[in-house]
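INFO  loader      accepted 1 record
INFO  loader      residues=98
INFO  predictor   begin
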Amino acid sequence: MEGNAVSIEADLEVLQATAPQIVAGIASRKWTATSVLRAYVRSSLRVQEACNPLTEVMYGQAFKQAEALDKEFARTGKLVGLRTSVLLFLACCELTTS
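INFO  predictor   done
INFO  writer      dumping tokens
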């Protein structure tokens, strides 16, 4: 459980960052596109476990893209568009109460 708490603490910095802060974090090599994605995937898995809102996930494709962007950044030192830094997970949940 302790390792899980560490992951949550580490993830919070990414999850609470704004898009410009994520861009800056990747540009400064504090984070990678892959590490940002991992934080969002872990968060989505915690939410899925709690309330089951996800119907379709494409983690494999997202990781392939993030890894490709990281390789390009390592090779050129330049970020490739907004996709490098802002990996969005959009979950549409309709909450109803009776």
